[in-house]
Specification:
Blueprint (H helix, E strand, L loop, with lengths): L1 H21 L17 H13 L3 E9 L6 E9 L4 E7 L2 E8 L2 E6 L1 H5 L5 H11 L3 E5 L6 H6 L2 H5 L7 E8 L2 E9 L4 E7 L6 E8 L2 E8 L14 E3 H5 L1
Amino acid sequence: MRRNVLVALGLTAVAAGIAGSLEGNKPDAPSQAAFAGLSGGQIVDRAVEATVSATTLRVSGRMPDETPGRTVRFDMVLSRKGECSGTLNYAEGKADVIRSAGTLYVRYDEQFYRSAGGTAQETDAAVALLGGKWIKTLAEDPDVKEIARFCTLEKALRQVHTNATRGATTTIDGTPAIALQEKSAKQHVTAYVATKGTPYILRLESSTAQGNTTIQFHDFGKVAAAQKPKGDTIDMATLTG
């Protein structure tokens, strides 16, 4: 489970990295009609407020795995109430995640268990016991607190308060947007904010020595909040004693 915690943590780290990378820039004189008179940092502040106000939204993308050269893909639905549901895909397997009413549920596929190490007998036993089943625990459980924290969209995005540089206007999935960017010795970050309608954050991109990260935000208010999963569930307390 620790591996999946680290995968999910990376998503929150992207937001934190953007905050640290973009801080301290001098605001540009705006050159585009969109958000006239606002600095890049002021636009980001507006975008954060708009995005965390969405009742639900979908977050998807990819980021470097902790194993060099590998990429993690994710597709999550987050709610303003701190609930979430979705999937984390990486080279070693897949994890389905749901947080609902203070409880976290994780379901790993067979590939995950078979790539976790151990003898063939141990692996077969794990697959027989846990394969296709949801593992249930409290969201406050120390073993899963980081993945549970990721589900709280507001806590992640509240870190993104910057004086970013205004870039060019573009289109993200059919929506007009403005690029807000910053380069440092270790990281190049670009945030795209909608210039038409509600100023949501539409995409975050980060480039570092470890690889490239892309996070897309979409389906604002159009996706259902997470609910308790159906199917076999095993309480983690029964596994850990």
